[in-house]
């Protein structure tokens, strides 16, 4: 069992019967009173972010996570089916466990995060940047670029993002799946 001195960014802990990762932390030693650790924790099961303060020296339970590469195969109702590239084992994961699922293409490699102690699938991490084709966007108006204006564009997976006016149909763009925003045009 560890204590608050072991807290660092990215650490997975069991807290309130859930598994959280530490997003941010700060050791605070006030001039008066006991020291404490202020944290921002993200639930791996629900994606919810909470703030919590641990008194210094509090015991915490560290969770061992296993990240395994899987390949997205196909949708099956409300689940998505993934295949292990070496063993060809198939797993089904509900859509709501996957953040940014609208940017997932067939044969895309993802990291499946599993709690090593319980063998429970916690979440699926898709790539941070994906390259996608724009299937439909309104044509941009020439000379209307002084305002950094953006327009909606529909991508090959059905996702919609805002793109600059100079992006046309059938162009390839890079998208940040964390913020769901356009990054750049791909040549």
Radius of gyration: 21 Å
Give, in order, the helices and strands. Answer: EEEEEEEEEEEEEEEE
Number of strands: 16
Helical percent range? under 10%
Reading off the top of the CATH hierarchy, the class of the largest domain is best stated as Mainly Beta
Question: How would you state the average pLDDT, rounded?
Answer: 90
CATH architecture of the largest domain: Roll
The fold-level CATH name of the largest domain is: SH3 type barrels
- pLDDT < 50 stretches: none
Class based on secondary structure composition and strand pairing: mainly beta
* N- and C-termini, Cα separation: 51 Å
Main sheet record: 6 strands, antiparallel
Structural domain count: 3
* Strand percent estimate: over 45%
Strand arrangement within the widest β-sheet reads 1-6-2-3-4-5
* Overall 3D form: flat
Instruction: Count up the helices.
Output: 0
Strand and helix map with partners:
Layout: E1 2-3, E2 12-15, E3 18-28, E4 36-43, E5 49-55, E6 59-62, E7 65-76, E8 79-83, E9 90-94, E10 109-115, E11 120-125, E12 129-137, E13 150-155, E14 160-164, E15 172-176, E16 181-185
Antiparallel strand pairs: 1-6, 2-3, 2-6, 3-4, 4-5, 7-8, 7-10, 8-9, 10-11, 12-13, 12-15, 13-14, 15-16
